[in-house]
Amino acid sequence: MSNNSDKSAPPLLTAHGLTKTHGRTPALRGASVELGAGEILAVTGASGSGKSTLLHCLAGIVRPDEGAVTYGHTRLDQLPEKRLSELRRTDFGVVFQFGQLIPELTALDNVALPLLLAGASRRDAHTRAGEWLERFGVLGQEELRPGEMSGGQAQRVSLARALATGPKIVFADEPTGALDSLAGEQVMSALVHTARESGTAVLLITHDAQVAAYADREVQLHDGAVVPLGVTA
Length: 233
Fold this sequence. Notes:
By secondary structure, the protein is an alpha/beta fold. The protein has one domain (13-227): Rossmann fold. 33% of the residues lie in helices and 24% in strands. α3 packs across α4 (122-135) and α4 crosses α5. The longest helix is centred in the last third of the chain and has 18 residues, at 181-198. The radius of gyration is 17 Å and the shape is globular. 44% of the residues are buried. The model has no long low-confidence stretch (mean pLDDT 90).
């Protein structure tokens, strides 16, 4: 697939030599990866290969034990938590496998929440949230709460929430993992179309080859390290 990234431009996000251990279990063993502006990158690998840990390090959710994560000219792994939280509200959007919408809030309020946190007025936040719900094909579901939505509806609301603030990067962790194949295709089509329109880079974690095929490029994790595609020995 074509993308909007400039091949000659420096990477938007770079990870080099990341290691991370959970207890006594190594999750990352020297993982390195680059993401260009406007690029859709799929990170694939078997369950337990370190994919989600890599995403969490790249998004500043957890700190690597060793290695560097650089966003533009900023070392994310050296930033204080307050600054990382700000970046996740402004520059980064995160989508999890099960959406993690706030169950007490309607679809409209879930999407409006990051806009309100960024300082938008309630009226403006709701107007923009409605526009994003329309872009993801869930207009008319504004007053539904997560428990009243289908899995595909909830995931599209999650994508609308992640993109509503105009992030530079969306981190999507198995965004179709809880969906049937048709709903998964609809979610991925909506994500890719919207990312292309807005020039947003996407780091996509998936174990599904059909989902990875939506990306411009694919890298593979095996035992916590990035390896050439098809090489797992």
